[in-house]
Structures are given as C-alpha cells and as structure tokens.
Design brief:
- With about 190 residues, the chain is an all-alpha fold.
- It has helices at about 10, 20-30, 35-40, 45-65, 70-95, 100-125, 125-135, 140-165, 170.
- The protein has one domain.
- The protein has 9 helices and no strands.
- The chain is globular.
C-alpha cells in the first residue's frame, strides 16, 4: 500500500501508465516535431518556430474539446496545465534562473492565452484570416512569413475538421489522430 508521504512515490511515478492528458499532449508534441513543418512549410526550426507549431496543434485540440461539455473542458484545462509545465521545463533548460521562472511562466501563459484567442477569432473569420494571424506570429518577416503561413493555415483548417470527426469519447480516452496534409498519421 502506498503511503501519501512515501519519499519514493515520486521516483516510482514513472511506472504509472501515462494519463489521457499525457497521451494527448505527447501526440501534439510528436506531431509538432515532424520535419515537414520546418523543411517544407518554411517554419524556422527554432524554439520560437517550434512553439508556434506546437501552439497550433494545441489550439486545434482545445477548439474541439471546448464544444464537448464539462469533462472535455476539464481535459482542455489539464492540457493547458501540461503545456504550462512543459514551458517551465523549457525555460529551465534555457538557463532561466529559478527566481525568474514564475514571472516568465506567467508572461508565457498570458501570451499563450492571447495567441490561442487570436487563432480562435481567425478560425471563425476563415482560412485567409487564419493565415494572416499565423504570419503575424511566425518568427519570420514579410513575404517569408506569408509563404509559410498559408500551408500552415490550410493544414490547421484540415486538422480542425479532422478532429471534429473524431468521437469525443476517443479524445477523452487520450486517442487522437492527426493526418492533415503532412501525410503523417499520428
């Protein structure tokens, strides 16, 4: 029997099967790491570029979950919490000191929320608006940003539709499939 104050409990957590949130977040991260986004779509393979691709995948899934009731909204919040924790880890790996991390995480969380809201408004306005919003946030300039944003917007448009066709029960169980125009089935 596990005691709540067992000092080994944290070390033994790796034995637990991944939660549904971990499965969904892992699928998002794996999809966002696909080379196609950086080689074919023109997104810079940098921390900023990867953050944008990750945020687009997170947005698509959150958009789907928000329309599915309380349990799905709870899953969406758990994904946001997992995302925030992941960003804290990245900041630590970049060498941000412990004292600076809470402030940076709060700023990143606020900018992430603003970014997700901007994606949602753009999605409502249509694919060209989504492309324009993506172009604004990509770490690229002018025509290069527009050139990368158009295939990304088309891809996001496709996966939003694809996620709409996936049963909410599957998503809540941690099962997600991305296909879109990358040709990768994850």
């Amino acid at each position: 029997m596990s005691h709540p104050f067992n000092p080994l409990a944290r070390l033994l957590r790796w034995r637990l099967p991944p939660s549904n949130t971990d499965k969904l977040y892992g699928a998002i991260v794996a999809q966002a790491r696909l080379p196609v986004f950086y080689r074919s779509y023109g997104v810079p393979d940098t921390i900023d570029g990867r953050f944008i691709v990750l945020s687009l995948h997170l947005f698509a899934l959150l958009h789907r979950l928000q329309s599915e009731g309380a349990e799905a909204r709870g899953q969406a919040q758990a994904l946001m919490d997992r995302f925030s924790g992941d960003m804290e880890t990245v900041l630590r790996e970049l060498g941000i000191g412990d004292l600076g991390i809470p402030k940076k995480v709060r700023a990143l969380a606020a900018s992430s929320q603003a970014l997700l809201h901007a994606y949602a408004a753009a999605l409502e306005a249509g694919e060209p608006a989504l492309a324009a919003t993506i172009a604004e946030v990509l770490p690229l300039e002018g025509e290069t940003a527009r050139a990368a944003s158009e295939p990304l917007a088309s891809y996001v448009w496709e996966i939003v539709g694809e996620l709409e066709r996936q049963p909410p029960e599957s998503l809540l169980a941690g099962e997600i499939h991305f296909q879109g125009s990358t040709g990768h089935h994850g």
